[in-house]
Amino acid sequence: MFYREAGQFKTSYFADQAVFPIRQDRIGLALILGVAFVILPLTASGFFLSVVMVPVLIFALAAIGLNILTGYAGLVSLGTGGFMGVGAFACYKLTTLFPGVNVIVWILASGLFASALGILFGLPSLRIKGFYLAVATLAAQFFLDWAFVRLPWLVNNNVSGAIEVPIRTLFGVAVTGPTATPQFRYLVILSIVTLLTWFASNLVHGRIGRSWMAVRDMDLAAELIGIELPGTKLLAFAVSSYYCGVAGALMVFLWYGSAEPGVFGIDLSFSILFMVIIGGLGSLIGSFFGAALIYGLPIVLRGTLNAIGAQITPATVEHLTFMTVGALIILFLIIEPSGLARLWQIGKQKLRVWPFPY
Amino acid sequence: MNLLYAVFVDPFVQMGTAPDLLAQTLWEGLVAGVLYALIALGFVLIFKASGVFNFAQGIMVVFAALTLVGVYETLGRWGVPPGALAAYLALAISVVVMLGLAVLVERVMLRPLVNQPDIILFMATFGLTYFLIGLGELTFGGNPKRMIADELYLPSGTYDIKMLGGFVSMQKIDIAAVVIVSLMVAILSFFFQKTRIGRALRAVADSHKAALSVGISLEQIWVVVWFAAGIVALATGIMWGARSEVSFSLQIIALKALPVLILGGFTSIPGAIVGGLIIGIGEKIGEFYWGPLLGSGIESWLAYVIALAFLLFRPQGLFGEKIIERI
Q1: What are the backbone dihedrals phi and psi of residue A354, each rounded to the nearest 5 degrees, phi first?
Q2: Is the Cβ pair A323, B138 closer than 8 Å?
Q3: Which of B129, B142, B261 sits opposite A326 (nearest CB)?
Q4: Closest Cα partner for B255 from B62, B28, B22, B30?
Q5: pTM score, two decimals?
Q6: Of A209, A227, A324, B94, which is the most buried if we count CB atoms within 10 A?
Q7: How many residue contacts between A and B have a Cβ separation below 8 Å?
Q8: Which of B213-227, B263-277, B294-308 is least confident?
Q9: Chain A from 69 to 98: CB within 8 A of any B CB
Q10: Can you give the pLDDT at residue A342?
Q11: Around Cβ A41, how many Cβ atoms within 10 Å?
Q12: Above 0.85 for ipTM, yes or no?
């Protein structure tokens, strides 16, 4: 009824293979992009942008990275936090060594360092799989955690041991550091995330994405139909770590402003994995849903609990939040193990056939 | 050259010149290994019988220990005189709590998730972890507590043994830990090999469908394994708690048990024990002799590297079942 593709005929292969073959989808996407790029920066408060939109976008980017590895190539990784850290530290080193080059270039380049380490720590995947691999990627997480603390060279030997983001400009306007406005930071992040999402979408819909999915579904069979396993798996690690690295650099440079090594700990890895699973394995839009839900849920819960009872102590609120988040995660998994992306699909189908049930 | 000397010669010279220190390090590694093995055992029990990689084992350890201490304190407030009676009463109540947890987990979490992919079940145990963290802190408070080791008649103090030209000191509680772990493994092995439920467990581990078709109740088996894992968690909690104190940071040690698991194989009880010992000893020796070279603190990842090195040669772990893949 609301959402029907009747009367939209495809007259070329190109049109038939489009990522969004239905006109309403394209209109919807254009609307969302319009709102995100034009209306939000003009109307929303700086607080909303920097507390809600910026973190969600950055987490979504990291979740896309992990989703490429776990959802598309079927390799579970628990080292996401470490790779995000590599991106952040690489970006810091690069921008302090070469302050003349635009910081955006370095943010995008820092992902390459994460990529290189991703390939290195992805090597065990050629030999082991499943949970054995998941635990093996923890080696990356713990090693990188240790390295961030133990190598003072990474933070230019400053005493605090933390990254302190210098002020950098883009088109003459401050984009990082304390003087950057939330609106501008938000726009920069949104552009990078949109660009990289578009790239990821093309990647997973093309030959490479299909070979990843073949490896995910059954790697032996994939090998038999002529997919080269080592290259495919390592490429998945490289691309995934690139996304995580860029997300890490964005997180420190455009959101936190300064970061201790501790923020790239195992908790970060786990929460990104949550975003991927709750959002939907093997779905790009799911990564955004998952990021919004997992990041937003504790905040909303805390807010609600604080609102309903002033007599509850903050500690109790914290504990109740933990309990509720845990229970909700189990509940989500029971209701829809394929994640929010699947609910989105079902919702669209319902709209398509409404008011008839089939 | 200096570096090569420091890596390949110096540590061994140190070992040769101070054998008592080596013995002390080995003993500490052994004890740590036994305790890692104990956590790994909890993982293996559940993985064997239900294919669930139970991430919540670490928090179950904390939760069990907190329950024990919390119940003991509550009993004290209700007028039960502190001492052995109250301690053992608290122990019994904690066992009942772990049974209740097992039943709840099976009813609420596992039953609706039957037949889902492994990773979904893995994630569900994460949800359980968060839930138990919240529940534990809410009920018992977040402050570290003292384990009631003396009241449970666990020994304290140290033995100093004169050997190899020096003193090697052994905590009595560590010796008790080694004894208790050996006992538990013996009992569990007996349970798995000889009893009716144990055989049913092994049948379930082999194939859910085949086990169902010969009339084994999956639900009942799952409750039994989660309960067994809960008991193992309780024992682990008491041992670790007695060594330091009961707090939520104990949960970190669960992460230490993961390399033990991949080293020994997810499905093997002997693997958990041997893996635990290799990791424990390797970690302590590595930290003590090679750690200073890298600026110490390498304990956090050395275990994983050791495990990875083994995995390159045996992808299913030392004692894991051979992975056979069919198309």
Answers
A1: -55, 140
A2: yes
A3: B129
A4: B62
A5: 0.86
A6: B94
A7: 137
A8: B294-308
A9: 70, 76
A10: 87
A11: 18
A12: no
Judged by CB atoms closer than 8 Å, whether chains meet at A135 and B133 is answered as: no
CATH number of B2-313: 1.10.3470
| Residue ranges covered by each domain of chain A | 46-266
Torsion, Cα of B207, B213, B215, B220 (10° steps)? 40
3-state SS assignment for residue B142: coil
| Alpha helix stretches (DSSP H) within chain B | 2-4, 10-17, 19-50, 57-77, 84-104, 118-140, 172-194, 196-206, 208-213, 218-243, 252-264, 269-285, 291-294, 299-313
> What six digits make up the tokens of A118?
């991703």
CA–CA distance from B151 to each of A239, A278, B86, B239, B244 (Å)?
Answer: 56, 45, 8, 14, 16
Element containing residue A82 per DSSP (H, E): helix A80-97
Which of A139, A145, A150 faces B295 most closely, judged by CB atoms? A150
Contacts of A325 in chain B (CB under 8 A): 127, 130, 134
CA–CA min distance B154, chain A (Å): 32
- For residue B259, give the 3-state DSSP assignment: helix
Show which of residues 97-136 on chain B sit within 8 Å of chain A, judged by CB atoms.
Answer: 108-109, 112-113, 116-120, 122-124, 126-135
**Is A293 a residue whose pLDDT tops 70?**
yes
Cα–Cα distances in Å, from B132 out to A87, A106, A315, A327, B211?
33, 42, 15, 10, 31
Give yes or no for residue B117 having a pLDDT over 90. Answer: no
Task: Tell me the nearest-neighbour CA distance from B195 into chain A, angstroms.
Answer: 30
Given a contact cutoff of 8 angstroms between Cβ atoms, the answer to whether A333 and A344 are in contact is no
Minimum Cα–Cα distance from A77: chain B residue: B119
Measured CA to CA, the distance from residue A293 to residue B310 in angstroms comes to 39
Domain ranges, ordered by start, for chain B:
2-313
